[in-house]
Amino acid sequence: MPYASAADMQSRFGLEELTARTDRNGTGAVDAAVLARALADADAEIDGYLATRYRLPLPTVPPVLVRVACDIARYRLWEDLASEEVRRRYEDARRMLEALTRGHVSLGLPATLPQEQQPALSLAAAKSGAAPNFDRDGLGGF
């Protein structure tokens, strides 16, 4: 599920920055494929966190996830040249995702997975070997 679009990125960071970060061929325009890859990477990172707590795809995209997705995609576009601000926003986005998975922050959506998707807990004891024999002959020495 896409959490943010190219239009979201442009409204937050401007056409000039997106062109500078995506134009690998010197065309002077935003390379839509490069931008789409960064957004897809952000979606995958977000899904990795949310899948532990929410049923995916989400029914709606909360505005906080649009911001988080944009900050993650921006960081990916900057690669190893990220400024302190870009890096800080990415780290804040990851902390937000961690808080969501722990339940410290809510998306305003049902927080638990449906029962059939939750891991089954078993209280059964493990056993190995033959069944114990608790009759008079089997307990002869006790």
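Above is the first protein from milestone M3; the second protein from the same milestone is given next.
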Amino acid sequence: MYIIVIAWIYVTLMMSVAEANNTNGTLLGAIVTFILYGILPTALMVYLMGAPKRNKARKAKEAAWAIQKNPEDSDSALPVEPDASGHATRVSPNCSVPPMRKEQ
């Protein structure tokens, strides 16, 4: 993936150089060309393509946190198990829930 990023930055850099060296071109036009055609789309692509890696790292961190907090109960990786049925989630027995206070 990084070879595409490097190649696109190179192409847009050459476009900017051509814009700056053209008789009708300006340095401001070259900078705008490099930012709008090079930096912004490349940053967006790198961010979107890195989403699966960030999600995997987040899940691994949550699993490590759950195992560290509760080493004897390594079956449940998260303190609260998700429920796909649309009902409220089940709280694991090892997770403490604060009691509700009555209004006075």
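Note on the second protein: The radius of gyration is 26 Å.
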